[in-house]
Amino acid sequence: MTQCKDIPDEPILRFLARRPDEWHNWYFGDDMDVHRAMPAGIPEKLILAKMRRLIRRRLVYGCDCGCRGDFVITAKGQALLSTLDAGC
User: Which of 9, 23, 40, 81 has its CB 3.0 to 4.6 Å from that of 70, i.e. a possible disulfide?
Assistant: First the structure.
């Protein structure tokens, strides 16, 4: 995988939705790290690019400058998951 479009949105959104009121990061290696929701071996640069894309689409809120991120799922992201769960 070498492009954002190759990384699926749904696992990332589900990962954030499991603890919607807590900030998630992109590099600490703990249980809040979005690496856990992405395919193995994704370079950090691509992980951050994917999170930027999700922020731009307003599915995720957070900081895309390269700091820890503080990512959380937005209401729009939750609504997309609800649509997927409903089978629409």
Answer: 23
The answer to whether the predicted template modeling score (pTM) of the entire model surpasses 0.85 is: yes
Task: Tell me what percent of the chain is helix, strand and coil, each rounded to the nearest 5.
Answer: 45, 10, 45
Question: Which of 13, 71, 21, 58 lies closest to 37 in space, CA to CA?
Answer: 13
Q: Please report which helix (H) or strand (E) contains residue 60, including its range.
A: strand 60-61
Residue 28: the pLDDT is 87
For 2-38, the pLDDT digits (tens) are: 799 999 999 999 999 999 999 999 888 899 999 999 9
Using the Cα atoms of residue 36, residue 40, residue 45 and residue 49 in order, give the sign of their dihedral: negative
Residue whose entry in the numeric block shows the structure tokens 């629409």: 88
Q: Which helix (H) or strand (E) holds 61?
A: strand 60-61
